[in-house]
Amino acid sequence: MTDTSFVRHDMLAEQAPPATSVGLLGWLRKNLFSGWVNTVLTVISLGLIAFVLAGLLPWVFQSVWVADSLSECREVMAATWGETHGHACWAVIRERWPQLMFGFYPSEMYWRPILAFVLLLTAVAPVLFPGAPRQLLYISAAYPFLMPWLLWGGTIWGPVLVAAGLAIGFFTHKYLEPLAGGLAALVAAVVAAVIWWLFLMGPISGVLDSVLPIGIESVVSRNFGGFMLSIMIGVVAIGVSLPIGIILALGRQSDLLIVKALCIGFIEFIRGVPLITLLFVASTLLNIFMPPGTNFDIILRVIIMVTLFASAYMAEVIRGGLAALPRGQYEGADSLGLDYWQAQRLIIMPQALKISIPGIVSTFIGVFKDTTLVSIIGLLDPLGLAQGIRANAEWNGVYWELFAFIAFLFFIFCFSMSRYSMYLERRLRTDHK
Amino acid sequence: MAEHSHETMVDRAIDRSHMQVSDEIAIQITNMNKWYGSFHVLRDIDLTVNRGERIVICGPSGSGKSTLIRCINRLEEHQQGQIVVDGTELTSDLKNVDKVRSEVGMVFQHFNLFPHLTVLENCTLAPIWVRKEPKKEADQVAMEYLEKVKIPEQALKYPGQLSGGQQQRVAIARSLCMKPRIMLFDEPTSALDPEMIKEVLDTMISLAEEGMTMLVVTHEMGFARQVANRVIFMDQGQIVEQNEPEGFFNNPKSDRTQLFLSQILGH
């Protein structure tokens, strides 16, 4: 006879889980030794890691930091550890440090790129982190004009008048809009600013400089180099490609046929051409199309090319974000009476950019690494300098140390960007699903 | 969509003291036609809506009822005929379109709240950017309307944290913050779980009680019976029948209407 009726009178007390399923032991068991196959793989992997580290760690840490040439390095190594080659000669980094950082920038003016870098960090802080003091945004606004002036030097009136051009454009738009309507005012503003920059700014700057000569010593572009150059090209390309990319992505979705065709043409052309080709065009061909006598700075040309290249990729990444937005978001914005630009700025872009963060940051990282390609057209970025340093009799034969150091610095920058993008995605998460 | 055979009835007495239809014309649609490509989706629509009217539009899916009310704030463009909203004709002139849109509130089936903004920010966005109201004032107005739809405590949450019914009430509050003179509802309860339909209908009823001009596309026949002063039945892009709810439900004239009603009311 079975009794199916059952009533519990004493409720069971909570018990601790078995020791093998929690804590360190539980973690090891679950992740490394969950079966005999995994156990074997774990042991083999640990062996492999140990083998690599056994070679790498002595090379990195049992190394020579003070020497004037590779042969001196080798002598010190032989005297300390015997006749092996398993030791790094970091002395080359130490000796060529200023060059790897600044290229041939005059050493008495190193404070200028250093100040520019410190200001860069201060300028991006309020943009990247909401906790940073909002007053720093003034530095962010001034930075695009300050940085070129600090690096290239010259009269203070140059950057001031460039900024004045923006103000001219702004006020033209502001006062014309009620009279002539939005589009006409915008066109007039752009035309006014461009006329100012191309034709009026130069003479006025000359006059102002002769009346009130404030300035710092000029440095020519061919003295630029090292990480200063990489960071400069990278930062400008990253900072400018995002807004251009947004405009291109919107243009590609536009109902205006010509705008759309131009955007598609630009994006597809740039994406269809290797960056190297664009850089060669910048370094050689571009001068052919310029009026004779124009001196269009090589670094500026390279920055423009890298920026255009990055913009095309950025546009496609952002287009992906736009495509992922449901139509209802556009309709919601429309139904409230927001105009096109308000809807884009307040509703569409914040969401599309959020969706695109991983792609955008990947593009940024790619652009920053691509700056090393400028060594091919003769600019002295760290890789270009590495070649130069090896060509020197003292350091002939140094490979690994230079490349490892350059890779290490690039890794720091790229890894920071990658971590920042993860932080940003977490911070902007509002869907709580 | 026809699975909504149940009728959500509202169990309170409806206050009709402010539900007066005036002679003033709110929306005038004359001889309007619309095509999607070569598909003739709206045919010869003539419709006059007076201020204070509460119109329910029903019909089988694909009958053009959503398209019709979406034409009223030009989410869809019509190709022929005339639509005049509050004295402003809808043409390709964007200034007019934005003006009409800011005067006409719209509630969507899928809410279309902005997920990256809090509930309060959703409500204050348009008043601040379109009406140029100061933020403080807009916040205050928004809180009043959130109280009215009975979710002031959710103001600082994000839409993704709310239930469907709550989200739809936020969407209604968001529209109301623009102080619209006309409200359009495009199947406001179709995406909701049954137990949430009532809270949204309650909100809509209290809006009707205040004399709001409302055009509602819905399958909630209980709402139509209790609140509407006119029911319009559409099929194949045309207005087939319109009548007061009493006559519409008890004594439908056209065969199509009879068939439709017998399908969605079941029994």
3D architecture notes:
The complex is a heterodimer of chains A (433) and B (267). Chain A is an all-alpha fold. Chain A has 3 domains: 25-81, no CATH class; 92-105 and 221-427, MetI-like (MetI-like fold), CATH 1.10.3720.10; 155-216, no CATH class. In chain A, 71% of the residues lie in helices and 1% in strands. Chain A has 16 helices and 2 strands. A two-stranded antiparallel sheet of chain A has the order 1-2. Chain A is flat, with a radius of gyration of 29 Å. Chain A starts with 22 loop residues before the first helix and ends in a 6-residue tail after the last helix. With 267 residues, chain B is an alpha/beta fold. In chain B, 36% of the residues lie in helices and 24% in strands. Chain B contains 9 helices and 10 strands. Chain B has helices at residues 65-72, 94-103, 119-129, 135-148, 164-176, 194-209, 221-227, 245-250, 255-264; strands at 25-36, 39-50, 54-58, 80-85, 88-89, 104-107, 182-186, 213-217, 230-235, 238-243. In chain B, the strands form 2 sheets. In chain B, strands 6-7-8-3-9-10 form a 6-stranded mixed sheet, with helices on both faces. In chain B, helix 3 packs across helix 4 (135-148), helix 4 crosses helix 5 and helix 5 (164-176) packs parallel to helix 6. The radius of gyration of chain B is 18 Å and the shape is globular. Mean pLDDT of chain B is 90; it is low at 1-5.
Q: What's the CATH superfamily of the largest domain in chain A, by name?
A: MetI-like
Strand tally of chain A: 2
Strand content of chain A: under 5%
Order of helices and strands of chain B: EEEHEEHEHHHEHEHEEHH
Radius of gyration of chain A: 29 Å
CATH topology of the largest domain in chain A: MetI-like fold
Protein structure class of chain B: alpha/beta
- Distance N to C terminus of chain B: 17 Å
Tally of helical segments of chain A: 16
How many beta-strand runs of chain B? 10
Strand % of chain B is 15-25%
The biggest chain-chain interface is: A-B, 23 and 29 residues
Radius of gyration of chain B: 18 Å
* Low-pLDDT windows of residues of chain A: none
How many structural units, i.e. domains of chain A? 3
Q: Output the CATH class name of the largest domain in chain A.
A: Mainly Alpha
What's the overall geometry of chain B? globular
